Amino acid sequence: MDFVKETYTIGEVAKMFNLSVPTLRYYDQEGLIPNLHKDSAGHRQFDSQNIDAVQIIECLKDVDMPLKDIKRFMEWNLAGDSTLKERLALFEKLDKQVNARLKRLTAISRVIDYKQRYYRQAVADGTEKYVAEHKQPLTTIIDE
Question: What residues in the chain have per-residue pLDDT under 70?
Answer without folding.
Answer: 1-5, 144
